[in-house]
Amino acid sequence: MALFSRNPEQPGALRDCTPGAKGMKKFSEGDVAVIDAANISRHEAQTLVDLKPSAVINVAEFSTGSIPNYGPHMLLDADITLLEGVGQSFVSEFKEGKRARIGEDGTVFSGDKALGTGRMVTRERAEKNFASAQGALIDHMESFFGNSIDFINSEGPLLIDGLGVPASGSEIAGRKVVLFSPTDKHREQLKQLRNFIREYEPLLIAVGAAADSLLAQGYKPDFIIGDPNSVSDEALRCGARVIVPADPEGEVEGLDRIQDLGIGAMTFPAATHSGTDLGLLFADYHGADLIVQAGGGVDLDDIFEDRTNPSAVLSRLKAGTKVVDADAVINLYSAPSSNLGWLWALLGILVAIAVVILIVGFGGNQDFASNLSETWSSLFGGA
Questions:
Q1: Whole-model pTM?
Q2: Which of 88, 115, 200, 379 has the most crowded CB, counting CB atoms within 10 A?
Q3: Going from the N-terminus, what domains does the chain have, and what CATH number goes with each?
Q4: Would you indicate the residue range of the signal peptide (predicted)?
Q5: Residue 34 is inside which H or E element, if any?
Q6: What three-state secondary structure class fits 363?
């Protein structure tokens, strides 16, 4: 693979192409794309290929070995130099637009300053990672579905007939429910769901620490599900009904906390302690009309990359079409941006002027034109 030239006249400006950065807009053919994309997909790779970079520097690994992804092959087919694993510190070290070169050992230089070091990705390495990932994915999926069968075997009565679901929740029937899980994005999603909440007044189910997020934004949860040790005293005492996960033998984490606070709580015995999974089963069992899940969902990539478990998948399958991701609802309630605001303002001014003219023209004792002339003369005649 060709390395960057030491000649400063050669192209090779570093461009930050990580999510939210502005490097994509400034990108010119031959620049160097800096990304943070583990297991880069074909779509992501094609976006880079279209930019025609001389090299792509990845903070993460182009392929971690967890899934067989074609992204690295597409970039190599386009004769693009690939450097991976430079680490998060590299993002803060380089300056947007500065020219760079890559040494034979994978060190990135800007002038004489070393910004970081990574690994060169060759065709041989990409093929080896792909083959290894194929085998690992098959092994992982066999294990995942084996665990799914075990979960169904132990929790079939819960999944089929709702055995063990707390009985207190009859008011959920026919209502819309928003289930908040305490992930990185749930607070922002809560703000963006305010119009939906105002219009439909759904019941609010908070999982663990999400109860405190609801209180902080002026909402009171109707139900709190999860380990009480992750919830503040204020939230536990806010009037919400508290549901505490219990293992199949009946042991409950956080029971001492509930007793010390002197509040009532219901137990939910199951083979999973995930408040989100239990919340979905709880809302579905009691007949929720719609369940909006805020704080992250589950997709096939999560299964492939071992970011979820069988209970998460099966609980969502049980709730079926009732479950809607919060981002979908937010998208429906987001008005498209418009650049025509100035036109509406101008139209409003013109309408106001026309109204004034009509009032003046028809408001006098003379004909329309004479009334306008007399009013104009009285206002500006002495100017």
A1: 0.74
A2: 115
A3: 14-121 (3.50.50), 168-332 (3.40.50), 341-380 (no CATH)
A4: none
A5: strand 32-35
A6: helix
